[in-house]
Amino acid sequence: MAGVSDYFSIGSTVSCKTCYDKEIEGEVLAFDQQTKMLILKCPSSMNQPNLNDVHIVNLSLVSDVQVKNEASSPPTNEQPMSLNLQRLNTRVRNQIDGKKRMVKALQAGASPDGQKLYIAISKTINEITWQGPNIVVWDKVTIIPPYKIENVQGNSNDKAFTHIKKVVEKHMRDTAAEETQTKEQPSQSQQTQKGSSTQ
User: Fold this and answer.
1) pLDDT digit string, tens, across residues 2-56
2) Element (H, E) at 62
3) In which residue ranges is the amino acid composition biased (Low complexity) (predicted)?
4) How far apart are CA 110 and CA 128, in angstroms?
């Protein structure tokens, strides 16, 4: 690890290369010397000027660190904002759960439609699993390929069956709406281009 300082002053601009060969450059929000953790505020990856990305960098795992611009004077008596650790831990857990759902869906070898439906259901229902290409919910309801409303199997008098059928129906509506919106966007941009060329 080259160029790591014993201390990074808040407000300085620092650039570092992670172990994944990713360049991160931003303003130092915080630095913990004991754990070698650096928190950087970077421009939004979604190109929104009112938002920022915040990266927590473990300096033990970076290949290069450079101070691009040293802060001239530390912020005067500015109390750092306290972090809501419970909220952060919940976000981390949700992200991990989401990734696990995606991995399970991919491992099942199901079609992309099946994978999307599995992920959609698993966001609200934990008791969901794969049996080959079939999705099984609460050990009562099975959804077989091609994962449409008519492919939901189970006891039609059971509340679980009715509920899952509604979930599948909503998922299909949402998916159709997304596809329609995606198709409309290029045509709108084409109309804008045509309109601007005539002026």
Assistant:
1) 445 567 888 889 998 888 788 889 999 888 888 888 899 998 888 888 888 888 8
2) strand 62-69
3) 183-199
4) 15
